[in-house]
Amino acid sequence: MSRLSFFIKRLMRLDWQRFSKTFQKLKATTGKSAPVLLFDLLVCGVKYNAGYMDYLIARMDLLDSKQRKTVITRGISNNIVRRMNDKNYWHIFDDKQQFNQTFARWVKRQSMRFDKNTGLEELKDFLQDKESVFVKPIEGSSGVGVHKLSGEQIQNVEEVFSHLKDLGVSIVEETVIQHERLQALCPTSVNTVRVATLLGDYKEGIVYAFLRVGNGQVMDNVDCGGMAARINLEDGVITTPAADKQGNVFEKHPMTGTPFVGFTLPYFDEAKTMCLEAMRVVPQLRFVAWDVAITPDGPVFIEGNSFPSHAVPQFAAHYPDGIGILPEFEKFIDVYAK
């Protein structure tokens, strides 16, 4: 698909209410007049396949044309996924229970699929020794519909059963206990490491790693108010402040006061090894973003993403020189190949 065709297709599907809200934020953030800003958004849309959220997240208003070419925009990301990942195999990652079964060696926790055929006794058996569980839609992304049940909420199995019946098909999982260092960083969520692997044209391995951190919610997902900070692939040390999807930058965690830069991830080498081994299990999916939780005993998988978000590795705060992450991808693949 040509850049112009992609731009027109996106324009036809535009959420005008969301665009209007973001446009007002961009005006306030950039200081540009409405006509100037709109023109620049159109230029970036056609020339770089950038959506208005790409423009905001990467602060493309501050970048020159050379720098803008290094941003992984939605259009470029879509092309990479389309070429790297055979859609016939997405279901292995999109169905959370199937993912847990396929990668059970590294998931290391109990889970059950809840659907219309699930009985009350089956649920009771699963819940009997658990203090809390996570409930997730069997498919979905961005943390939508994910919630935690704990304490009195799971004491009445009949009420839990009724609640799950109302939700439809879902997965109920044993709660992951995270490492004490990550618990001290943010105790409200399991803070995961996003590790992206590529079975590329030129080489294979890890493209990037970021720590995703919650900000008071039960989820660390950036679409749920969470933030992300870049991790050095060699030593597992955070090298940048954290940032969220709205462009806010955090030198320290706002809840605990823990500095981000210099924070060292426990078991990072083990997490990398796990991802590099797992990327060969379904070789038809060559580009996967793995969400890794670090427990007191080492890394485990939360999930894998067959259509990785291009937002997490592209926040402007992580690239103070304005050179984005696209050159890192070019070490592995021809980004613009069809």
CATH superfamily descriptor of the largest domain = ATP-grasp fold, B domain
Can you give the mean pLDDT?
92
Structural class: alpha+beta
Determine the N-to-C terminus distance: 9 Å
The geometry reads as: globular
Biggest β-sheet description: 7 strands, antiparallel
Reading side by side through the largest sheet, how are the strands ordered? 9-8-7-6-5-10-11
Low-confidence stretches: none
CATH topology of the largest domain: D-amino Acid Aminotransferase, Chain A, domain 1
Helix content bin: 25-40%
Number of strands: 11
CATH class of the largest domain: Alpha Beta
Number of domains: 3
Series of secondary-structure elements, N-terminal to C-terminal: HHHHHHHHHEHEEHEHEEEEEHEEH
Q: Approximately what portion of the residues adopt beta-strand conformation?
A: 15-25%
Q: Radius of gyration, Cα only, in angstroms?
A: 21 Å
* CATH architecture annotation name of the largest domain: 2-Layer Sandwich
Number of helices: 14
Helix and strand topology:
Layout: H1 3-12, H2 16-30, H3 34-48, H4 52-57, H5 65-68, H6 74-84, H7 91-94, H8 96-102, H9 104-107, E1 111-114, H10 120-127, E2 132-137, E3 147-150, H11 157-167, E4 170-174, H12 180-185, E5 193-199, E6 204-213, E7 227-230, E8 242-244, E9 249-250, H13 268-278, E10 287-295, E11 298-305, H14 326-330
Antiparallel strand pairs: 1-4, 2-3, 2-4, 5-6, 5-10, 6-7, 7-8, 8-9, 10-11
